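Our preliminary data section would be incomplete without showing what the modeling component actually yields. Below, a chain of 189 amino acids is followed by its predicted structure, encoded as tokens that our downstream tools consume directly.
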Amino acid sequence: MLSKELIPFNYKPTLTHYFQKLLVSKNKVLKIYTQNIDNLELMSGIAEDKIIHAHGSFENGHCLECKMKYSLEWMKEKLDKENFLKCEQDDCSGGLVKPDIVFFGENLPDEFLNYKKDFLQCDCLIVMGTSLKVVPFSKLPYSVKLDCPKLLINRDLVGEWELYVNDMEKNYRFVAELGDCLKLKMKLV
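Predicted structure:
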């Protein structure tokens, strides 16, 4: 059963999302790769073609039987009245409707699996607000060209930054701004 608590009813974009939107508006972003499923990037006004949802998103859902698409608004409305989301397509036998998010054990979306093309074009990688512990997302920073600068905006050092940021002999293009992400982004703006 899909829990109502999972669906992003009352979430609002943060300054982080608006920082991303600012970078997009200044043509400084090729793509935003996110593990978040809450659609806050879209809600902040970032164009859908700039966002790659590694774990899917709640923007839409689909019937597991006939593949009919359903909107987030439809899912919200139905979950206010019912415990299960059932397909309303006339020629479907009432299959369950699932949000287009990736559950554990499911395959990642094809758009995410094509990341190498984007990462080879990257001329500055910015990584924000992550532990970089979940594979394959944790491997993305290794996918850019060797001479690509990599900026981490985070509470803690993670991934490659743990190895290189404090080792000036081995550090090649790793920069970290550590602390409260919102304050750091305000500093950058």
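The longest helix spans residues 15-25. Strands lie at 32-34, 51-53, 56-63, 69-71, 97-101, 125-128, 150-154, 174-178. Preliminary results of this kind motivate Aim 1 of the renewal.
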